[in-house]
Recover the amino acids of this structure.
């Protein structure tokens, strides 16, 4: 007989040290149901899922109280392995992929297909030989199920972030007898079309009877696909409801416990932007970033402008900032405030007054084991030799100044933490993103390049960050390039938006251009000439 | 549209700079030293036989993310303990060597397990840990050999012990017991033993399959058996018997045999591909292999090279062991356990969340490495013929690691090919440096200094480059996922 509930969480509480992050949380999920879990950054969503999955962080920090039941049976998992065996799959908020492995190897990780060998008969299963053909075949099948056309033989390194997400999903789908799938912010890095495809995949899976727990900050998606929504606030479930009985604004209010105003709308555009001197001059830029290849982009961005770059994943929008910063091989001319950037010299752009917030915060942006304050100050110390006290012969870090500044930043960006000395690795995903941003702001750049700045950030914080960007421009005259998958975000603050398609600029649009124009430009249909 | 950014020549040089530097140095010192190939080649192949196993023992930990295993010194120590015991008990020859293996294997497993345990509690700083543990174990070893043996455990053996009766002598001569114990096994013995072992295994498998009522798969059993049987049969032909009865194979003959076998086998592969399976395309790989072997064979026709290669006598069984290890490592890396090691080496967090037991995998890697290193030291000492009780193990880690790095390996990536190339280059320079020093500066000592300088220099360079790549370049934080226990100092 089919059990009534696949998953039941009963009175779950969890604290990290003195920090009580989950308080008596209970909910349950039915077979074939898409159950949405929403809440602010740091509300405890990821922690709840880590408990479900038996992750070692939980056990290493004193375990938890309460019960997890799977199909009516108590199942407090001791390790992810047990959870996996019981039929739980998880797409983590942070990528769990190995860049040096092929797509197929990643999909099959820990569950490789093997064929027996002479040695394996004697010494046990671990000496069985990998059956790469079978692995590739299964991987291909899983990728096809989610409608993803990636070559399973290529290395994951350098696949665009959006693709990586689909590889993760393929990995979970490939697992046999999966009963429950957890998606922790799977759409945060996807563009609208990609996200829509993902949602469709989720619905197909649910239709097969798999229960899905869906965590996201995009409330629109929740309204579209979820059967029930639970709102988590400061570690407590404040409400569980059906989408038909509520609307986005109400959910948002429940999340933050206060009223939400609209996104930043009325940014004062500085006068005569059209005649301002050119701040960034990009001429025929080619960037060899795997999966985000840029094939000859030319742009002029004016001083004091907020310039948006949008487009579908894999079309090259991410490659532009990465090329300018010298993180991937690039050729072409880029002049910033009249100075030419030497791509070959790593960090050259940093020294010329540019700050960069990477879309890959774990890979490029953060030192997870260092404190918040050290992460915030790192670039400023290394690049601008700030926060140092001069002792004549040597210069030492000025701890006091760093602390002071970090406290300011924490307040400014509303970083939810126990204090500036907390390890960045122990922050919630959204709050890590805020630390990245703080580190860039600390450089006091003349040009700020932000790539997916609001990845994994809740609505409240998103507004805060947008407002701050606008303020930087107005008060300090900072020029900003913002690369984002979210058109809404681009259109709310940018002065002009370049849509990138197939590695080239398809069109430069004003934010109030009709939706159809954006759609056409993204699909590449508007590109000059015939293709 | 064509992307103007393609892999350029500069990139290749940048990635292989150490190897290229060494090739240049080797050629330079060969010319400067004025020595001949007939001097270089025999020396080189002797040293290769001694050193290869030790260098190859480094590969597994690199793949498993434990870095360069300075701890192989401890494997060497295990080998030396076993040699001491075997000499003390008066065993000799191949049997004595097997007894050494029987003693040092469990010892090395134990040591490897201990090091693995230790390394698991110091993730991210294994290399320093290995270095320090090496020194520490050297201390314990000296305590054992200088004080405990004879002092605590009474040993009455004037050839091994210092005249006071406490402590083991500085050098132990292996001439009458273990010297060439492995090198001196004739080809004939190898073939006969291999034939009987394979035949026995095949029979057991056959019975097993009959009992379990599985398919008999006789053809798969015959595959290794038939060529061995042919060789075995050939050994009864008088002319072949005299040839096979020798223990050393002249390099020229070795090259001829290798060329013949490779060409035949690859031709067979090509025919199977083209004529039977009708696969499209040019069989590039096979053709390349044939080309390589033909070129190698052609070298023997250069008179100078012919003379030099005639002077090289390869100890057959030793080289077979090395060859087997060279095949074993890639095979092992393609098993489930090997894949687990690679996963752990790339990202422990991901491995853990994929259900791999990270700590256990790392310990297994250390055990494999330590056991292989102990065998390596056995092979090396049976060839040298004297055991420097307090010195033989000291530089083992240092030189093996330097050789591996010279081949183009790095702290987190190393292959069998790189190991082989590295040993060849490193030892070529080692052999030539004193002569080159003498010819250029009139002082052989300078060459000696130079080679020590080079060994340390290469290691320092590799470690510095590792540190630079892992944090300088992209500030690439370790991909430690949940329990970020790897520490990167907040360097300035
Ligand atoms: N390893 C840890 N050690 C200490 N505190 C932690 C650790 N992991 C998370 N926390 C804390 O637990 C709280 C909840 O974090 P969690 O990651 O569950 O938030 P979240 O709801 O997933 O937020 P986001 O939307 O930003 O991902 C946060 O205050 C965070 O700082
Ligand atoms: Mg989270």
């Amino acid at each position: 007989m089919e059990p009534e509930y696949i998953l039941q969480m009963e009175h779950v509480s969890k604290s990290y040290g003195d920090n009580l992050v989950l308080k008596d949380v209970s909910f349950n999920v039915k077979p074939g149901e898409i159950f949405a879990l929403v809440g602010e950054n740091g509300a405890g969503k990821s922690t709840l899922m880590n408990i479900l999955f038996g992750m070692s962080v939980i056990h290493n920090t004193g375990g938890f109280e309460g019960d997890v039941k799977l199909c009516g049976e108590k199942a407090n998992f001791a390790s992810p392995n047990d959870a996996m065996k019981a039929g739980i799959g998880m797409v983590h908020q942070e990528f769990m992929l190995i860049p040096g492995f092929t797509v197929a190897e990643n999909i099959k990780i820990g569950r490789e297909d093997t064929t027996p060998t002479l040695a394996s008969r004697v010494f046990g299963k671990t000496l069985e030989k990998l059956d790469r053909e079978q692995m590739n075949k299964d991987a291909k099948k899983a990728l096809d199920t989610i409608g993803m056309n990636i070559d399973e033989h290529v290395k994951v390194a350098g696949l665009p972030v959006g693709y990586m997400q689909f590889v993760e999903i393929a990995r979970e789908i490939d697992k046999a007898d999966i009963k429950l799938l957890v998606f922790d912010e799977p759409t945060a890095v996807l563009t609208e079309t990609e996200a829509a495809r993902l949602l469709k995949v989720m619905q197909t899976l649910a239709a097969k009877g798999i229960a899905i727990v869906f965590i996201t900050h995009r409330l629109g998606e929740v309204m579209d696909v979820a059967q029930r929504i639970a709102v988590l606030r400061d570690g407590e479930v404040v409400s569980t409801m059906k989408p038909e009985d509520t609307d986005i604004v109400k959910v948002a209010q429940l999340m933050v416990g206060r009223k939400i105003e609209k996104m930043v709308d009325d940014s004062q555009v500085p006068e005569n932007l059209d005649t301002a001197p050119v701040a960034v001059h990009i001429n025929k830029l080619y960037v060899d970033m795997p999966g985000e290849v840029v094939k000859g982009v030319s742009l002029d961005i004016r001083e004091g402008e907020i310039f948006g770059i949008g487009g579908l994943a894999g079309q090259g929008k991410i490659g532009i900032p990465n090329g300018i910063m010298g993180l991937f091989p690039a050729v072409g001319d880029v002049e910033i405030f009249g100075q030419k950037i030497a791509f070959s010299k790593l960090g050259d752009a940093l020294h010329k007054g540019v700050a960069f917030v990477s879309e890959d915060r774990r890979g490029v942006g953060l030192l997870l084991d260092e404190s918040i304050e050290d992460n915030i100050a790192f670039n400023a110390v290394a690049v601008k030799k700030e926060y140092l006290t001069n002792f004549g012969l040597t210069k030492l870090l000025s701890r006091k100044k760093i602390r002071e500044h970090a406290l300011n930043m924490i307040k400014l960006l509303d970083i939810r933490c126990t204090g500036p000395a907390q390890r960045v690795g122990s922050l919630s995903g959204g709050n890590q993103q805020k630390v990245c941003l703080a580190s860039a702001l600390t450089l006091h750049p003349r040009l700020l390049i932000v790539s997916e700045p609001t990845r994994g950030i809740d609505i409240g914080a998103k507004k805060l960050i947008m407002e701050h960007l606008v303020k930087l421009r107005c008060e300090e005259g900072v020029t900003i390039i913002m690369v984002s998958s979210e058109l809404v975000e681009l259109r709310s603050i940018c002065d002009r938006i370049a849509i990138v398609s197939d590695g080239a600029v398809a069109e430069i649009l004003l934010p109030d251009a009709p939706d159809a124009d954006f759609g056409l430009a993204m699909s590449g249909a508007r590109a000059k000439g015939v293709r | 549209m064509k992307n103007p950014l393609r892999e350029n020549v500069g990139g290749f040089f940048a990635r292989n700079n150490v190897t290229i530097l060494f090739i240049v140095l080797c050629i330079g010192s060969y010319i400067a030293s004025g020595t001949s190939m007939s001097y270089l080649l025999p020396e080189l192949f002797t040293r290769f036989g001694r050193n290869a196993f030790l260098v190859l023992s480094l590969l597994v930990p690199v793949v498993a993310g434990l870095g360069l295993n300075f701890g192989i010194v401890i494997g060497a120590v295990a080998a030396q303990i076993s040699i001491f015991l075997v000499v003390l008990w008066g065993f000799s020859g191949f049997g004595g060597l097997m007894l050494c293996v029987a003693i040092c294997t469990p010892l090395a497993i134990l040591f490897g397990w201990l090091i693995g345990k230790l390394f698991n509690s110091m993730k991210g700083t294994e290399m320093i840990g290995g270095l320090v543990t090496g020194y520490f174990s050297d201390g314990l070893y000296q305590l054992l050999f200088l004080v405990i043996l004879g002092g605590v455990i009474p040993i009455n053996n004037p050839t091994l012990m210092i005249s006071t009766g406490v402590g083991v002598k500085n050098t132990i001569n292996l001439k009458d017991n273990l010297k060439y114990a492995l090198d001196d096994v004739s080809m004939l013995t190898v073939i006969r033993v291999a034939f009987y072992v394979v035949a026995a295994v095949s029979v057991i498998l056959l019975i097993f399959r009959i009992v379990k009522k599985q398919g008999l798969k006789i053809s798969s059993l015959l595959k290794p058996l038939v060529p061995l049987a042919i060789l075995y049969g050939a050994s009864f032909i008088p002319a072949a018997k005299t040839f096979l009865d020798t223990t050393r194979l002249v390099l020229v003959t070795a090259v001829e045999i290798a060329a013949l076998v490779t060409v035949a086998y690859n031709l067979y592969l090509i025919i199977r591909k083209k004529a039977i399976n009708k696969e499209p395309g040019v069989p590039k790989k096979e053709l390349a292999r044939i080309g390589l072997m033909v070129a190698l064979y052609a070298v023997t026709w250069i008179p100078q090279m012919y003379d030099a290669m005639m002077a090289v006598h390869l100890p057959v069984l030793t080289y077979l062991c090395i060859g087997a290890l060279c095949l074993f490592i890639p095979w092992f890396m393609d098993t489930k356990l090997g894949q687990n090691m690679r996963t752990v080496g790339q990202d422990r967090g991901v491995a853990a969340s994929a259900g791999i037991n990270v700590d256990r995998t790392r310990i297994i890697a250390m055990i494999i490495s330590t056991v292989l290193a102990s065998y390596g030291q056995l092979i090396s000492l049976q060839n040298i013929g004297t055991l420097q009780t307090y010195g033989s193990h000291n530089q083992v880690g240092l030189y093996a690691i330097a050789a591996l790095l010279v081949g183009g390996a790095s702290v987190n990536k190393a292959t069998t090919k790189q190991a082989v190339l590295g040993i060849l280059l490193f030892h070529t320079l080692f052999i030539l440096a004193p002569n080159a020093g003498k010819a250029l500066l009139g002082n052989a000592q300078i060459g000696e200094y130079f080679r020590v300088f080079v060994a340390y220099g290469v290691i320092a360079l590799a470690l510095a480059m590792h540190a630079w790549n892992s944090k300088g370049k992209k500030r690439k934080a370790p991909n430690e996922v949940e329990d970020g226990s790897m520490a990167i100092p907040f360097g300035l």
